[in-house]
Amino acid sequence: MLLVLCVDLDDDLGRKTGFSTPVIGRDPVEEAAVALATADPEDSDVNVIFQGLHVYDDLDERDESVEVAVVTGNDQGDVSANREVGDEVDTVLASLSTAEDVTVLVVTDGAQDESVIPIIRSRVPIDGVRRVVVRQAQDLESMYYTIKQVLDDPETRGTVLIPLGILLLIYPLALIGTALDMPGFVLGMTSALLGFYLISRGLRLGDRLDVAVERARRSLYAGRTTLLAYVVAAALFVLGGVSGSERLEAVQQSTAGPVEAPVMLAALVNGSILWFAAAGLTTSLGQITDEYIAGTLEWRYLNAPFYVLSIAIVLHAVSAFFLGEAGSAFFLGEVGITYLAAALTAGTLLGIVSTLTFAVAESRFADSDREEGTRQAERV
């Protein structure tokens, strides 16, 4: 049996005529079509129902097994309307008194109503879809629905509408800039906004920013010390940069003639390395604390603070030595080769000793854990 199924997704039939849906059978469907045409002659669903009757009559004249029905959704949105249509299709299928396999010919008035096709297909095979539109307005509703879908898509809005809106603002902003005697500034700012937006879209900076904000929010609510450590470390980095700049300025004032690039770099490092080391210690200790609380701490993680100290000692000694050799140690004092050698040796030994210590500790604790696991297995 072929079921000619007329779909009214937004329930114009029920809202405008009071008919109870689904409507099943040739005569009830014709009454519903006449009632809707009388209530609202311009409603496109009138054409859908009459088209369904036309198909029914044509197939009935050929002595084919056919039935016609009208199902409706509601005006509460696509998801709710689709569910309503699915329920009414189930009602129609349950009312058919036939031992034959049932297939469906769906009759709609445009692309919007065709969104229910997957719902119908999940219940009964579909032989075809017949779209009914007024000849004078061919594809008008489909074009409207397509544009509506495009504008409802967040990705499309961000990709198309925002750049288009900025471009449309150029002319009125240029007029404002001319009136304020600042046309170059206004046009430059508009161009910069457009360029920054396109670059951010190309690099997906928005997605990365969303991920970073979500991680920060989770860390805040989870009580993770890493978030606080990162904030403190950022402040220490800023202070380190200021301290390095001050050290460079002092070296420039104490040095006769131009300061060479290696000496400038040594001054910046020497003035900022202690602050940077403090920032590194803060972040590493915060991470170690979180790993311990989460129960995932491993011995080798404890190497991080010692590595930070080792690197800081080496960089501080090397930068101070370069400043002393260049005659720019205004307030550093003379730094000899002995101090440099001692600092390099101390930094290296600190890193090596910490690595060996925690490696041995991890190995022994791992062996003891395996032995304990073996004993428990033997007891079982």
From the alpha-carbon coordinates, what is the Rg to the nearest angstrom? 38 Å
For the largest beta-sheet, the strand count, sense and barrel status come to: 5 strands, mixed
Low-confidence stretches: 329-333
Number of strands: 5
Distance between the termini: 67 Å
Query: What is the spatial order of strands in the main beta sheet?
Result: 2-3-1-4-5
Strand content: 5-15%
Which H/E pattern describes the elements?
Answer: EHEHHEHEHEHHHHHHHH
Whole-number total of structural domains: 3
Which of globular, elongated, flat, extended, rod-shaped describes the shape? elongated
Number of helices: 13
What is the share of helical residues? over 70%
Structural class: alpha/beta
Protein name: Putative membrane protein
Organism: Natrinema salaciae
InterPro entries: DUF373
Transmembrane segments: 158-176, 182-200, 221-243, 263-285, 306-324, 336-361
